[in-house]
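Help: why these numbers?

___
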Amino acid sequence: MGEHKNNQVFTNQLLKWYDTEKRELPWRNTKDPYRIWLSEIILQQTRIQQGLPYYNRFISAFPNIEALAEAAEEHVLRLWQGLGYYSRARNLHACAQQIVAAYNGQFPKTYEQLLDLKGIGKYTAAAISSFAFDKAHAVVDGNVFRVLSRYFGITDDISESRSFKVFESKANALIPQDDAANFNQAIMDFGAIQCKPKQPHCALCPLSSSCFAYNKGMIAELPVKSKKIKVRKRYFNYLVISYQDHYLLKARGPKDIWQGLYDFALVESPTSQSVESTLKMLNNRNLIMEDSLGPVKHVLSHQQIFAQFIALKVQDFDTFELLKKEFDCAAFNADQIDTLPKPILIENYLKEAVFSVD
């Protein structure tokens, strides 16, 4: 089968499959670039089932881009809490402000202008330009890598940056100029529902008869991905310091995980250490250790956090103030803590060990 004919077979069968199998999602029934953009940012590295409640929450809190731009960053981060990859939320907020300031609240319509916006890369620019403005720019993500590599037998290593152009070029050769939005939605749904990473539904696949991987027995080998992510292990010793009904927390700074989110006073150690070793640095002050928990393992994309929580009750206000300054924290009561954006690791600890209900 010639390349052009094979391309046509793929595109036609894919769109036919999508016509009957597509998922009904709220952002698919709109041409509003704000809602499309919001859904795409939320769904980066997030499953639809997990991301949908966040999308609805953001639309409720910020019905338009002006409302999002005017919001406090802490409010945006609090609504984002639990999704992870918090730089996405900060970029989302900054991008909204950029569009309001530079484009009077109107999304630019060209792919190139969209690429200039904060936090918008090639995938998101292609999605917005095709879904909102009917421009024929193909999306390329993990689903697209997998579908194209399997069907066309593309063996370029997807962990290498140069391979992106190979897949982007192929996808743009397949996308119909007059039906770009449906094609992009179709190939993403096909990868998520039909051509899954493990146990794809090949027996019921309308493309199986002409699929390279299926006919060559190479489904498990494609796409090729050789580079392994190096995982860094970190040991967090949290001091949960309280005086009466107030607790010490601080906003995390830049150039590390969870920027702008709040956690407890932290002693990070190069290896796992005992509660006693952690407490030595406090020089036996007027403190009562109420409880300890850990280590609790928390897995991020490139890091593994082993967190130990040590609950410390302070006997007097002066000591509380000294510790507040020493650890650069602020004091919050339960209601205030509830409104703060926090890593899910901290949120879970608070629910289970501090504000739990018997």
User: Anything to note?
Assistant: The chain has two domains: 3-216, 232-354. The mean pLDDT is 93. The first helix runs from residue 3 to 21. Residues 3-216 form a domain with the Endonuclease III; domain 1 fold (CATH 1.10.340.30).
